[in-house]
Amino acid sequence: MKTDYGQKDYQWIKELMDYPRFLEKQLSFFDDTSQIEIPEDPIERVIFQDKAKAAIRKIAQNRGHILMVGRPGTGKSMLADMFNEVLEESLGDYLRPKNAIVAYPGKDKNHIRLAYETPEKIDEIISKVNQDIEVAKSNVDEFSLSEQIHSIQKLRRVLLLCAAVSAVGGVLFPPAFIATGLTGIGAIFMYMQENNHKAQEKIQREAHDKQNAVKHLFDMVPTVLYDPRKDRGLMSRISEPDSRNMKGGFRHDPYQSGNLHTPPHKRAFLGAHAKSPIIYIDELKTLVKAGYMPDFLEIMQNREYLLEGGRNSGSGSADRSEDPIKADNIIVACCNHDTLEYLQKEGDGAFLSRIEDKGEIIQMDSSVPETPETIKQVAQYIKQEVHALKREFHEAWGEILETEGYEGVRNRSEKIFGKPLPPDYVLKEREFSRLAVLEIVRELRCRSTDGKLSGILRPINGIIKTAEFEAILENSSLVEPRHVRSALKEHVSLEGSLAKELVAHQRDLKKYISSMTDSIGYVVGLAVTQSQSSGQMVGQPLPIHGQISAGSSDKVTAPGKTGDIAKAAAQNVRASIKKILNTIGAPHVGYEMHVEYIQAHGGVEGDSASVAMDIALVSDYIGQPVNQKYGVTGSLTGDIILAVGGVTEKIRSIMGPDLGMEGACVPWQNKHDIEPLLINTASEYIQKDEIPGIRIYRSLEKEAPFDIYFCKTKYNAYKILMGLDRMEVEKRMAERSRSDLAFYQKSGCAPLMAECTG
After folding, report:
1. Three-state SS for 603?
2. pLDDT in tens, 628-647
3. Claim to verify: residue 432 and residue 308 sit in the same structural domain
4. Selection from 205, 198, 200, 208 nearest residue 149 by Cα
5. Residue 751: what pLDDT?
């Protein structure tokens, strides 16, 4: 009898069971992460991205531009920091600007001039100018009305003397009192005039002091816009690039009335182009949205630009520089694939061509093959995170440790956690045991497919830190696998949290359907939801119901929010069933095929349920129940089952003992996706007829077995789920077809059916 499997196939499945021992052997060079050294080379601290690291070194040598394209969490920001660190150590003294940038008045009140000079020379010039102004200020005559006041005082005294003389004369000659009154009034008036002049003198002195008298000279003093002695960093990190933070501009003038205008060169400021040898644009999409791309391209081309006001109206709108500013920057940018597609289409490729002219576009790997080298890099990465946590502990609790010791840390931590902590509680980093590292490797495998490790590492940081705290609270000397598993339960992405709620509902639904139906036409399919941010996948059971009814025409319906790929998969299933009928020479009539994804309110996309659809329809067609304790996934092409994504998480979603599942059928090509499930568990090789599989025990006592079978064709899945081989299935399909034809012939519909079926 012809078989789908050969001896090598059985040997390959048996070799899968050696994976845990193989993995542990690759990590046998250490017992815990305290024995792992962190590389001195900063670029080598970024793991997995070998192609990107090689490109970074080449670009650093040539001082070119970089565009890193990849999903969040793949290490783009870390590579940019390492690139900056390498250039700092190798070429920092040459890349760092030597000259200061100064601004001084231009041809009119709206223009400024710019100059480059050594900071020491600028200090000397500005100091000399300020000294000259101080000399001019000291020579400014103070405002005075002393001559006028002195004249008034003399006249007042004369009037007072006349008043006194006339008063004495009035005793002898009374009409003289008239003169006394007139001269007295005049003296009083002169007194008031004297006080008025003194007040005016005081006001004028306050308003026109020596500082204001030489204000026009101070307005001519150059302003230092950039001093290389104060700004030593090579790289500027710009998260929202626009004209102001990239090019610079002119600040608002608060004194726009009277004669107190602030000259434009004193309101000017510079952006990253003028000050930073390296500019890191964290997300290139923000540059596109801000509309700064045209200016950016021009500056990259010309390596200089004019400083100008950034508003259409108001203070600073007309301000310009007469001299260009140098802008010879190394551009380090990163983006996702959707932004890259936009740059290729809408941006006409101008930015990409400028990057490639003096640099390279780097593709970040979202996943990497699992090799001895990448496995060692995972251990190195965990060690680096442990080291970082040690530094964080010192920064957060160092002062308390010095003054109060670990007892003070424990008392304060009890108030944070709201519960008593162990007397021997010590807030100190814990190293990872080898088996704990294996758990992290397992998680990275689960978040990828095809025997690869996920390269999206940012979410793993939180898992590592949470596992650390679990070990600290338990006062364990090392982080053990149980701490990692506990951390994994806490760190679930947003999509994962929603999916887990749906999983709980789907599990209850699956139990209910299994108890209420005869299992004919019902199949437990397997679906998966993947987080766009973290890459984490969450599997879930997907009950599917299929039904075939004899009708006037051949068609398939899949109601609900079914995507194009899922609809195409349903059509493929219809063609597959029709092919069987043709192959076995069974007379047939038209059939209407109905596929329902039970309560899949969020919709279904993809073709990974096509095998499950086929089994559901065939089960209904021949009236054979499907084993509801087995799940199935795979993409059906003709009779062959092809690989699908997320198999590891799909299997994990039904392995819980509470669901009552006993096994699953997976595509042969996904055999390596089962390897992570073998870590820290007991397993053995099994075989049902010709179909190989692996039995995983869900408890340490080798109890609660879960069987996974590797299917090459849909007939292998028929055998596992319905207990029928190919010949039996085809025989019963032929019988059903003849029965339907006989029914229509008896009811007088044979001519119509012959016309419909051609």
Report:
1. coil
2. 889 999 888 878 888 888 88
3. no
4. 198
5. 43
The reply to whether 75 falls in a domain is no
What whole-number distance in Å separates Cα of residue 486 and Cα of residue 478? Answer: 15
User: Which letter does DSSP use for residue 657 in this model?
Assistant: G
Cβ pair 618, 578 in contact under 8 A: no
> Residue 34: how many CA atoms within 13 Å on its side-chain side?
8
Q: Chain centroid to CA 450: how far?
A: 25
State which residues form the domain around 157: 144-207
Number of Cβ within 10 Å of residue 416's Cβ equals 8
* pLDDT for the residue 753: 45
Q: CATH code at 265?
A: 3.40.50.300
User: Could you tell me if 185 and 251 lie in one domain?
Assistant: no
Say how far apart CA 422 and CA 414 lie, in whole Å. Answer: 10
Tokens representing residue 226 in the block = 């950039």
H or E element, residue 170: helix 146-172
- Residue 7 within any structural domain of the chain: no
| pTM, entire model | 0.72
CA–CA distance, 636 with 611 (Å, rounded to integer): 5
Amino acid at 282: D
Is the CA virtual torsion 69, 70, 71, 72 positive or negative? negative
Backbone phi, then psi, for 292, in 5-degree steps?
Answer: -90, -5
Question: Can you give the length of the chain in residues?
Answer: 758
Q: Which residues contact 252 (CB under 8 A, 6 or more apart)?
A: 267, 314, 315, 316
Is residue 162 classed exposed, middle or buried when 0-12, 13-18 and 19+ CB atoms within 10 A define those classes?
middle
